[in-house]
């Protein structure tokens, strides 16, 4: 099995039911050559899934149920129609102090609920400037990806923190270097690590998508701002398909 190509949209805390029209437009325009995923706010998961497009949550709790006001369990995401869940996004790591261990525990919960975990890793600008990028990514991979990960239940996303929502992207060489490291580490640790889907995320736009998708071991993208409008996301999907 080769790594599957995936165009994933992370709507973050954006979108009400009015935004569902964008899903209809994306489905009208989508090419069949890659997998699609939309991760809307939890309030829209059921409605998006009902349209027949693979749908993901943006976080889940490590526990299956209980007294955790405001949180959502992996099984509840699954029940609402989700097939995936983003875990360890840098905004969760920063805003909610999520550690690698917490991300790994959530990934185990996601797998137990039958969800595909989209686990994010990425360095800060200070870490890149200090020459620590590869060490940071290796440590996050080791700590955030649980032993039960397989190519079927886990997708990895390299998202440099400084590239998210900024309009800045690493050079192709910088992306290639990190993706090669990820492939090496995952292949060394997991029997099917060579087949795991590796995404790049951080200011992917219609204008840079094709160049990024040509980089070795980049199997697709996790797209934030440019996934909110079909007019932006559809060309990105087309560049991958
Ligand atoms: C993200 O938040 O996952 C992301 C990649 O955002 P953006 O595409 O807006 O940089």
**Percent range for β-strand residues:** 5-15%
Basic shape: globular
Q: Helical residue percent?
A: 25-40%
For the terminal residues, how far apart are their CA atoms? Answer: 18 Å
Q: What integer value in Å does the Rg equal? A: 16 Å
* Overall number of structural domains: 1
CATH fold-level name: TIM Barrel
Order of helices and strands: EHEHEHEHHEHHEHEHEH
Number of helices: 10
CATH superfamily: Aldolase class I
Tell me the strand order in the biggest sheet.
2-1-8-7-6-5-4-3
Uncertain stretches of 5 or more adjacent residues = none
How many E-type strands?
8
Task: Please state the second-level CATH architecture.
Answer: Alpha-Beta Barrel
Task: Note the main attributes of this structure.
single chain, 241 residues, alpha/beta, TIM Barrel, eight-stranded parallel β-sheet, globular, binds phosphoenolpyruvate, TrioseP_Isoase_bac/euk, glycolysis, triose-phosphate isomerase activity
Explain how this protein is built.
- This protein has 241 residues and is of the alpha/beta class.
- It has one domain (6-13, 21-26, 33-220): Aldolase class I (TIM Barrel, Alpha-Beta Barrel), CATH 3.20.20.
- The chain contains ten helices and eight strands.
- The protein has an eight-stranded parallel β-sheet with strand order 2-1-8-7-6-5-4-3.
- Helix 5 (100-112) crosses helix 7 (133-144).
- The longest helix is centred in the C-terminal third of the chain and has 18 residues, at 172-189.
- The radius of gyration is 16 Å and the shape is globular.
- The relative contact order is 0.17.
- The model has no long low-confidence stretch (mean pLDDT 97).
- The site of phosphoenolpyruvate has 13 residues, from strand 8.
- This is Triosephosphate isomerase.
- Pathway: Carbohydrate degradation; glycolysis; D-glyceraldehyde 3-phosphate from glycerone phosphate: step 1/1; Carbohydrate metabolism; erythritol degradation; Carbohydrate biosynthesis; gluconeogenesis.
- Substrate binds at residues 10-12, 165, 203, 224-225.
């Amino acid at each position: 099995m080769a790594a599957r190509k995936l165009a994933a949209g992370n709507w973050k805390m954006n979108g009400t039911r009015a935004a569902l029209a964008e899903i209809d437009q994306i489905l009208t325009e989508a090419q069949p050559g890659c997998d699609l995923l939309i991760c809307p706010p939890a309030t829209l998961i059921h409605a998006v899934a009902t349209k027949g497009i693979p749908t993901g949550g943006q976080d889940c709790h490590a526990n299956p149920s209980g007294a955790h006001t405001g949180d959502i369990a992996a099984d509840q995401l699954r029940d609402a129609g989700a097939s995936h869940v983003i875990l360890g996004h840098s905004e969760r790591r920063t805003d909610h102090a999520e550690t690698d261990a917490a991300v790994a525990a959530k990934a185990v919960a996601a797998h137990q609920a039958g969800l595909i975990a989209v686990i994010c890793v990425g360095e800060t600008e200070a870490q890149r400037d200090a020459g620590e990028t590869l060490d940071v990514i290796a440590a996050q991979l080791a700590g955030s990806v649980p032993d039960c990960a397989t190519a079927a239940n886990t997708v990895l996303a390299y998202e440099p923190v400084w590239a998210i929502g900024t309009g800045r992207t690493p050079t192709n060489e910088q992306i290639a270097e990190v993706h090669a490291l990820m492939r090496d580490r995952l292949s060394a640790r997991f029997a099917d690590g060579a087949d795991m889907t590796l995404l790049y995320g951080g200011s992917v736009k219609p204008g840079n998508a094709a160049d990024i998708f040509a980089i070795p071991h980049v199997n697709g993208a996790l797209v934030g701002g440019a996934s909110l409008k079909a007019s932006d996301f559809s060309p990105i999907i087309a560049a991958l398909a």
